[in-house]
Amino acid sequence: MPRSKRARVVHESKTVKKDHKEQTRRLFANIRECIEEYDHLFIFSVDNMRNTYLKDVRTEFADSRVFFGKTKVMAKALGQNSESEAAPNVHKLTPYLAGAVGLLFTSRTPEAVIEHFENFRPQDFARAGTEATRSFTIPNGLVTSRAGEIPVEQDEPISHTIEPALRKLGVPTRLIKGKVTLELMEGQEGYPVCKKGEILDSRQTTLMKMFGVLSSEFKVELKAYWTRSTEEIKILAPEGGMDVDA
């Protein structure tokens, strides 16, 4: 059968497949270089991971290096015992490389780093599948844009264009003279969106976002750090709440 003479689409660019071995080798080499270059190495963990806030951390520590990669590769780069470690005692940090953790290499003082992260805790909207840190209820009557989260005199009625979306999400509302009103049975004080401690679903998190309810906190917890000049490990906030030296 003769070959078709129809026009064919010829792609001029090709997707380059990522070389995972090369990425691993580069991560290992970069960590080893940083151990020799910076004064301190911190192990940190992240609660409620958000790329936006992690970028803020990288921007703030532009004079430092932040690594957030595979824990096995990072552990191997630090060394898993005294024979394979990159510098004296640095292998003692490897037990803290579990979960959503990263490395921060810096020459800033430990006091300055600790103070920064104690104050850096931006609020964000909760995600589905996370635990509710607070309860949220839409009050009866006229539905406002913040649903009772701020004083009434500072709030304003929610737009009538949002009313269909609220009903679709299960909120019993209706329009009265162009105003969105919560319509509940007698005896109900409001529409409960969520209760503290329960696991949130996408419907609940959507409603919380619609009313500007920030209930999630991005937090960087410093677990331990190593100082090149003294070759010592400092464990931060162990059981008992006191700092101890390793």
Please explain how this structure is put together.
With 246 residues, the protein is of the alpha+beta class. It folds into two domains: 22-122 and 218-245, Ribosomal protein L10, N-terminal RNA-binding domain (Alpha-Beta Plaits, 2-Layer Sandwich); 136-214, Molybdopterin biosynthesis moea protein, domain 2 (Alpha-Beta Complex), CATH 3.90.105.20. The protein contains six helices and 13 strands. The strands form four sheets. The protein has a six-stranded antiparallel sheet with strand order 2-3-1-11-12-13, with helices on both faces. A hairpin with a 2-residue loop joins strand 7 (173-176) and strand 8. It is extended and about 75 Å long. It starts with 19 loop residues before the first helix and ends with a strand. Residues 239-246 have low confidence and may be disordered.
CATH architecture of the largest domain: 2-Layer Sandwich
* Low-confidence region ranges: 239-246
Average predicted confidence as pLDDT: 87
Largest sheet: 6 strands, antiparallel
Q: Strands across the major sheet, in which order?
A: 2-3-1-11-12-13
Shape: extended
Alpha carbon gap, first and last residue? 77 Å
Reading the helices and strands in chain order gives: HEHEHEHEEEHEEEHEEEE
Q: Please estimate the helix content.
A: 10-25%
What's the gyration radius in Å? 26 Å
Number of E strands = 13
The number of distinct helices, counting runs of at least 4 residues, comes to 6
Specify the CATH homologous superfamily of the largest domain.
Ribosomal protein L10, N-terminal RNA-binding domain
Proportion of β residues? 15-25%
